[in-house]
C-alpha cells in the first residue's frame, strides 16, 4: 500500500470540493489500495459527517449516503415497501462487509475484472491506453452488453441493480449546487474512457439515494452465482411486476453483471405491459434484452443464462 | 520396541486397556487457544528488532533477470537490503524432499516467481520498496503455457496386464469417456510465513510447516549449515493441505536476510503469492474405459491421465493410484502422462492422485451403471476383487462393502429415482448420486518421547505437527489410554524440531505413524511399571492412576515411580507395507438440486461412510471427513485455478475469485464410521483419515446432477455455465 495522508471531514462542506479520495466503509477501496490499483495521495474519511439516516421524502424514502448496507436492508420501511432493495443488498457480500459498506460507496464500487485487479496486465480502466487483457483472456465474468473495444468489465454490485429497477435517484452535492441523477444514468458505459465509471465530477459527493413512491407488485431479486453466497453475480435480475386479471399490468426490470452499469432497457417493460405471460413472451423479452449482446469466449454462456434467468423471474412473478 | 513394522500386531491392545479415552470425541486441548486468538502462528511471534521482508515476483513468465537496480530502493526510507542470493528458492520444495539445492533465482520459471527479497524496518516500507524495485529481464518463451496439444512423457511406470483393447471389444457393456479436472489450490487459511533469527551459526525459524524432520534438512541444505544448527518452531499451523510439506520461498529468504543483517527477519507471503508461487494440483485429462460382462463384472479397465508440471519437476499427479486396487478388471492399462508447461509448480494438494482420480473413475462407474441399468451400489459391490488384480496381493482390512451398505441405508438410497428428470420441486430438479471412496494408506518413520513423571502425569513430545487435524488431541489420548491416566493429566508438545521426529502431517499418515510411536513409548513405560509391580507387561492393568494385575492388589501408580520414566517410541514401515494392499475405503451419498433455468447446483444433504481402522478421536476424525467432503463439493462445483493461456499467469489468485465452498454451500452432512481394526496398518490398528473424505466425493455430486436433470458433464467443476448448456427446456411438462 502506498503511503497516504489521512484526514477526517467534520461535515459535508468539508468533503465537497476536496481533492482527496473519499473513504466511507472502505470495503472496496482498501482492497484496491493494498493491491495498489488505487494509490491516492490523501484519504478523506467522511464517516462522521452524518448522512446516515433513512427518512421519508414525499411518498418515497431518502436513504443517506452513509447508511450502511446492513441498516438499509433491515429498515422496516424498506422491507415493507421496497423489498427488492433489501433482497438485493442481502444477496451481496457478507454480513461483516455489509456492516461497513455504505449506500454511496456501494454505488461507486469498482469492477472485479481480474486484469484490472492484478495491477500488472494491460488495462484501459486502470491505466488508460494500455489495452484490455480481458479480451482474449479469462473473461468468464465479463460483460456482454454495452461493451467497447477498450473495456468489457462489469459493474459487479447488486444494490444498484435494484435501485435501477426501482428508478431511484442519486442525490449529489457539488461545489456550487446539488443535483439529482437517476441511478439508471449514474453509471456510464465504458466507451473509449473506461476509467470513468459514473457521472460524478471531481469534488462532488453523493449525499443520498431517493426511492420513489412504492410500486405495487411482486418484487424479485434473482442472483445467479457460482456458489450460494459470497460470490459476485454471474448475472442478476431485479424485477417489479404487477399482474391484473391474468395480464402483466406493470413491469420494471434491471439486470446486473451484464454490463459496465446496471442494465435497464425500457423497451422490455413496454413489451411486457398488457400481455398475457407465456414462455414465448418471455423469449421475446429476452430477444430485446440480448439483441446486441456479444460474448467474448468464456462469457458466451451469459447470453443463454440471461435469457433463462429472465424467464425464471418472469415465470415466478406471473405464476406461469 | 525399535524396529520396523514387519508383523501385524494382533494384540489389539487399545481395546484391552481400561482408561476408556481412546476414540472418545474429546475436544482438542488447544482448541480454545485457537478460537480465542491465543494460539501464536508463525508470523505472530514478537522478536526484538525484527525487520520485515517482502518477496518481489517476476513480471515476466520465463527468462532471466539481467539487472536488479538496488541502489534506488536502498535509499528509500527504512530499506535495509535487497537480496537475490543463490540459496533462495525459485520453486517451493516438494513433500519429503529433505534437500533444497541451490536454485539460481535470477532464472524465471513461471509468472510471479520470486526473484528478490526487499527488507526494511517496517512492512509498509518493504512493500513500497518492493513495488519500486526496478528489475530488467531477458524474456524467453521455450516452455508452453498450456498443456493442450503438448507432447508428454510418462509420469510414472504404466501398469498393464492382459489385453485391454481386445477385451473391451468383447464386453457386453462398455464405457469409453474422457473427463477433465482443473488445477486446484490448497488455499490454507494461514499464509506461508517465516521469522528467521540467527544466534552465531545457529538458526531458529518460526514457520508454518507440515513435516519438520524434512524441513530442517531442506533449510540446512539450502543455507549450507548443519541440520543440528537449524531449529524450526511450528506448534500451530493454520492449514497445510500439502502446500506446507516442503519449505517455501519465505523461509530461505528470511534466513538469508537475517544472516546478513544480524537481526530477525519476517517474511509473510501475500494471499496472492500463496496462490501464485507455492504449489498447484495439476489439471488433468482422464480417459476411462470400462468393460463389463453381462453380469456387470469388470473385465477391462483403462484409466489414463494427462497431467502437467514445470520442466525438471519429478512430481506427476498420481491420478490412477486407487484405480490400481479398487475394482476388478484383469485386463487393464493405467497410466499417467506428463506435459511440461510454464505454470507454478505442481505438487501435492490434499489427496494427490485420488482426489481427482477417484472423482472421475466414480463418475465413469456411474455411466456404466446407467448403461447397464443396474444400481450403482450393486455395480461397485459386484466388482470388489478378492486380491489386487494383476499381482494377487492380499488386502489388509477393507470395509468398502460395509461402507456402501451402511451409507446407503443411512442415506435412504432406495428412494433414488432410477432415471433422470423424475423429481422436480419448483424450479429445481432433485437427484441422488453416490460414489466409492478409496485412498492408499501407509505409515512413515516416526518417533515420540513419552515421559511419565513422578506424580503420574504424562508428557508426550514429538516434532509432529498439528495442521488443524487434531494431533494434540489424539496423541494425548493414546498416551492416557496406555498409561491409565485421565486425559487432563496428559500434556502434548508438538511442532518443535528439537523434539523426536514424528512422521509429520502428510499423506494421511501422521496419526497412525506418530500415534504408533507414542504407543510404543508407552509400551516401554508399561514394561518398567510391570517390572516394578512384579507382573508381566501383558498382565499390567492401569486406570485412573491405579496399577494392578491378577493377584496383585491395586495401588497408586505413583508408588511405582521414583522419578520420571522417559521413553522414546519408534516405528518404521516394514514388511506389512508390502505384504498387503493397505487402503482406507468409504462411500458417499448425496442429494442435489439443480436449477432448471440457471444450472446452479446446490447440495441438499450428504452422507459419507468410512472405514479408517480404529477411530482415535471420533470428533477430530469426523471433522477430517467433513473437511474432505467439503473439498469434494468445491472440486465438483466451484474450484478451478484459471490460468491465462497467453502467459501462464493465474487470474483468480485470491479467495474472492478462487471459489472454495462457503457455509451456505454446505448442506446437512452425516459421517458414519464403519467399525474396523486394521492390525496390518499399524500397532494401534488405525489408518489415515485426513484425505479419504475428498477421494470420490465430487464424483457422487456429478452423478447426482445426472440423476437430477439428465446432464452428464465430463468437465469439473460443474458450474452453471456448463450445466445450463445441456439442460432441457425448463417449461417442458
Description:
The radius of gyration of chain A is 19 Å and the shape is globular. Chain A has helices spanning 12-15, 29-34, 69-74, 76-81, 83-90, 95-100, 103-107, 114-117, 159-166, 183-186, 266-272, 279-290, 302-318, and strands at 5-8, 21-23, 42-45, 54-57, 60-64, 169-173, 178-182, 205-211, 218-224, 235-244, 247-256. Chain A has 320 residues and is α+β, with helices and mostly antiparallel strands. The model of chain A has no long low-confidence stretch (mean pLDDT 97). Chain A has a five-stranded antiparallel β-sheet with strand order 4-5-8-6-7. A three-stranded parallel β-sheet of chain A has the order 1-3-2, with no helix packed on it. A three-stranded antiparallel β-sheet of chain A has the order 9-10-11, sandwiched between helices. Chain A is built from 13 helices and eleven strands. Helix content of chain A is 29%, strand content 20%. In chain A, 53% of the residues are buried. The longest helix of chain A has 17 residues, at 302-318. With 733 residues, chain B is of the alpha+beta class. Chain B folds into three domains: 4-39 and 446-571, Aldehyde oxidase/xanthine dehydrogenase, molybdopterin binding domain (Aldehyde Oxidoreductase, domain 4), CATH 3.30.365; 42-141 and 188-279, 2-Layer Sandwich (Aldehyde Oxidoreductase, domain 4); 353-364 and 392-441 and 582-724, Aldehyde oxidase/xanthine dehydrogenase, molybdopterin binding domain (Aldehyde Oxidoreductase, domain 4, 2-Layer Sandwich). Chain B is globular, with a radius of gyration of 27 Å. Chain B has 17 helices and 31 strands. In chain B, strand 22 (446-452) and strand 23 form a beta hairpin. Chain B has a seven-stranded mixed β-sheet with strand order 4-6-2-15-12-13-14, with helices on both faces. In chain B, strands 8, 9, 10, 17, 18 and 19 form a six-stranded mixed β-sheet that branches. Chain B has a five-stranded mixed β-sheet with strand order 1-28-22-23-24. Chain B starts with a strand and ends in a 9-residue tail after the last helix. The longest helix of chain B has 24 residues, at 510-533. The chains are: A alpha+beta (320), B alpha+beta (733). The interface between A and B is large, with 35 and 39 residues.
Amino acid at each position: 500500500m502506498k503511503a497516504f495522508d489521512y484526514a477526517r471531514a467534520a461535515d459535508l462542506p468539508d468533503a465537497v470540493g476536496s481533492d482527496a479520495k473519499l473513504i466511507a466503509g472502505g470495503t472496496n477501496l482498501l482492497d484496491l489500495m493494498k493491491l495498489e490499483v488505487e494509490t491516492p495521495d490523501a484519504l478523506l474519511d467522511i464517516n462522521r459527517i452524518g448522512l446516515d439516516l433513512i427518512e421519508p421524502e414525499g411518498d418515497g424514502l431518502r436513504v443517506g449516503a452513509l447508511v450502511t448496507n446492513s441498516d438499509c436492508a433491515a429498515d422496516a420501511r424498506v422491507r415493507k415497501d421496497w423489498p427488492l432493495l433489501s433482497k438485493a443488498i442481502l444477496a451481496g457480500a457478507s454480513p461483516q462487509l455489509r456492516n461497513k459498506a455504505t449506500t454511496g460507496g456501494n454505488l461507486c464500487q469498482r469492477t472485479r475484472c481480474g486484469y484490472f485487479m492484478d495491477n500488472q496486465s494491460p488495462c484501459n480502466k486502470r491505466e488508460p491506453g494500455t489495452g484490455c487483457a480481458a479480451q482474449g483472456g479469462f473473461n468468464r465474468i465479463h460483460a456482454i452488453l454495452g461493451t467497447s473495444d477498450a473495456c468489457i468489465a462489469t459493474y459487479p454490485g447488486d444494490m444498484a441493480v435494484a435501485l435501477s429497477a426501482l428508478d431511484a435517484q442519486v442525490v449529489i452535492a457539488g461545489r456550487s449546487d446539488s443535483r439529482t441523477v437517476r441511478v439508471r444514468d449514474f453509471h456510464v458505459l465504458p466507451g473509449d474512457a473506461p476509467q470513468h465509471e459514473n457521472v460524478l465530477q471531481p469534488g462532488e459527493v453523493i449525499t443520498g439515494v431517493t426511492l420513489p413512491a412504492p410500486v405495487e407488485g411482486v418484487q424479485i431479486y434473482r442472483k445467479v452465482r457460482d456458489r450460494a453466497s459470497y460470490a459476485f453475480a454471474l448475472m442478476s435480475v431485479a424485477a417489479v411486476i404487477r399482474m391484473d386479471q391474468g395480464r402483466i399490468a406493470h413491469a420494471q426490470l434491471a439486470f446486473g453483471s451484464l454490463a459496465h452499469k446496471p442494465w435497464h432497457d425500457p423497451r422490455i417493460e413496454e413489451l411486457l405491459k398488457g400481455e398475457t405471460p407465456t414462455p414465448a413472451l418471455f423469449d421475446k423479452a429476452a430477444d430485446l434484452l440480448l439483441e446486441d449482446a456479444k460474448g467474448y469466449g468464456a462469457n458466451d454462456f451469459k447470453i443463454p443464462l440471461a435469457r433463462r434467468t429472465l424467464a425464471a423471474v418472469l415465470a415466478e412473478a406471473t405464476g406461469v | 520396541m525399535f524396529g520396523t513394522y514387519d508383523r501385524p500386531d494382533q494384540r489389539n491392545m487399545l481395546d484391552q486397556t481400561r482408561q476408556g479415552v481412546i476414540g472418545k470425541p474429546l475436544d482438542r486441548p488447544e482448541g480454545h487457544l485457537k478460537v480465542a486468538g491465543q494460539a501464536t502462528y508463525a508470523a505472530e511471534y514478537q522478536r526484538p528488532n525484527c525487520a520485515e521482508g517482502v518477496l518481489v515476483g517476476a513480471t515476466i513468465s520465463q527468462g532471466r533477470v539481467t539487472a536488479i537496480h538496488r541502489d534506488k530502493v536502498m535509499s528509500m526510507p527504512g530499506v535495509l537490503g535487497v537480496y537475490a542470493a543463490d540459496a533462495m528458492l525459485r520453486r517451493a520444495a516438494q513433500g519429503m524432499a529433505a534437500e533444497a539445492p541451490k536454485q539460481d533465482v535470477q532464472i524465471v520459471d513461471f509468472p510471479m516467481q520470486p526473484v528478490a527479497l526487499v527488507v526494511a524496518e517496517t512492512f509498509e516500507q518493504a512493500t513500497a520498496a518492493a513495488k519500486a524495485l526496478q528489475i530488467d529481464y531477458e524474456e524467453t518463451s521455450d516452455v508452453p503455457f498450456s498443456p493442450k496439444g503438448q507432447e508428454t512423457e510418462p509420469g510414472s511406470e504404466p501398469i498393464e496386464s492382459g489385453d485391454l483393447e481386445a477385451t473391451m471389444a468383447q464386453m457386453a457393456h462398455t464405457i469409453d469417456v474422457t473427463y477433465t479436472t482443473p488445477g486446484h489450490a490448497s488455499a490454507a487459511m494461514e499464509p506461508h510465513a517465516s521469522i528467521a533469527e540467527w544466534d552465531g551459526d545457529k538458526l531458529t525459524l518460526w514457520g508454518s510447516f507440515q513435516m519438520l524432520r524434512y524441513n530442517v534438512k531442506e533449510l540446512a541444505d539450502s543455507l549450507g549449515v548443519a541440520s543440528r544448527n537449524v531449529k524450526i518452531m511450528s506448534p500451530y499451523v493454520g492449514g497445510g493441505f500439502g502446500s506446507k510439506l516442503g519449505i517455501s520461498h519465505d523461509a530461505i529468504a528470511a534466513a538469508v536476510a537475517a544472516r546478513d543483517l544480524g537481526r530477525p527477519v519476517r517474511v509473510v507471503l501475500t494471499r496472492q503469492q500463496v496462490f501464485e508461487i507455492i504449489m498447484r494440483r495439476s489439471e488433468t485429462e482422464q480417459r476411462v474405459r470400462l468393460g463389463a460382462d453381462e453380469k456387470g463384472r469388470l473385465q477391462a479397465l483403462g484409466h489414463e491421465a494427462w497431467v502437467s508440471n514445470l520442466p525438471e519437476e519429478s512430481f506427476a499427479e498420481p491420478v490412477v493410484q486407487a484405480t490400481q486396487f479398487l475394482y476388478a478388471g484383469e485386463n487393464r492399462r493405467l497410466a499417467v502422462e506428463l506435459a511440461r508447461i510454464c505454470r507454478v509448480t505442481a505438487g501435492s494438494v490434499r489427496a494427490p492422485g485420488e482426489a481427482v482420480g477417484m472423482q472421475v473413475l466414480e463418475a465413469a462407474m456411474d455411466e456404466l451403471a446407467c448403461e447397464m441399468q443396474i444400481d450403482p451400489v450393486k455395480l461397485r459391490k459386484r466388482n470388489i476383487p478378492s486380491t489386487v488384480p494383476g499381482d494377487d496381493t492380499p488386502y489388509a482390512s477393507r470395509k468398502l462393502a460395509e461402507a456402501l451398505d451402511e451409507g446407503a441405508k443411512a442415506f435412504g438410497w432406495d428412494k433414488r429415482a432410477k432415471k433422470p428428470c423424475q423429481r422436480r420441486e419448483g424450479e429445481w430438479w432433485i437427484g441422488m448420486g453416490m460414489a466409492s471412496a478409496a485412498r492408499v494408506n501407509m505409515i512413515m518413520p516416526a518417533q515420540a518421547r513419552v515421559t511419565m513423571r513422578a506424580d503420574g502425569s504424562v508428557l508426550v513430545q514429538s516434532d509432529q505437527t498439528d495442521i488443524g487435524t487434531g494431533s494434540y488431541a489424539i496423541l494425548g489420548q493414546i498416551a492416557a489410554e496406555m498409561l491409565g491416566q485421565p486425559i487432563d493429566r496428559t500434556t502434548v508438545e508438538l511442532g518443535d524440531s528439537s523434539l523426536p521426529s514424528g512422521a509429520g502431517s502428510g499423506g494421511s499418515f501422521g496419526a497412525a505413524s506418530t500415534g504408533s510411536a507414542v504407543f510404543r513409548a508407552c509400551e516401554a513405560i508399561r514394561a518398567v511399571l510391570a517390572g516394578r509391580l512384579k507382573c508381566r507387561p501383558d498382565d499390567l492393568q492401569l486406570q485412573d492412576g491405579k496399577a494392578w494385575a491378577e493377584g496383585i492388589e491395586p495401588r497408586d501408580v505413583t508408588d511405582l515411580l521414583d522419578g520420571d520414566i522417559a521413553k522414546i517410541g519408534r516405528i518404521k514401515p516394514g514388511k506389512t507395507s508390502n505384504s498387503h494392499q493397505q487402503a482406507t475405503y468409504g462411500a458417499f451419498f448425496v442429494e442435489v438440486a439443480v436449477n432448471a433455468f440457471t444450472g446452479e447446483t446446490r447440495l441438499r444433504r450428504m452422507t459419507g461412510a468410512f472405514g479408517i481402522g480404529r477411530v482415535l478421536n471420533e470428533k477430530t476424525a469426523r471433522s477430517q471427513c467433513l473437511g474432505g467432503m467439503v473439498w469434494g463439493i468445491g472440486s465438483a462445483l466451484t474450484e478451478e485455478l484459471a490460468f491465462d493461456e497467453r502467459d501462464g499467469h493465474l487470474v483468480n489468485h485470491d479467495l474472492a475469485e478462487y471459489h472454495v465452498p462457503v457455509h451456505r454451500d454446505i448442506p446437512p452432512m452425516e459421517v458414519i464410521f464403519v467399525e474396523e481394526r486394521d492390525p496390518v496398518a499399524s500397532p494401534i490398528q488405525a489408518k489415515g483419515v485426513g484425505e479419504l473424505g475428498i477421494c470420490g466425493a465430487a464424483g457422487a455430486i456429478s452423478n447426482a446432477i445426472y440423476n437430477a436433470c439428465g446432464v452428464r458433464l465430463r468437465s469439473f467443476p460443474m458450474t452453471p455455465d456448463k450445466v445450463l448448456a445441456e439442460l432441457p427446456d425448463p417449461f417442458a411438462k
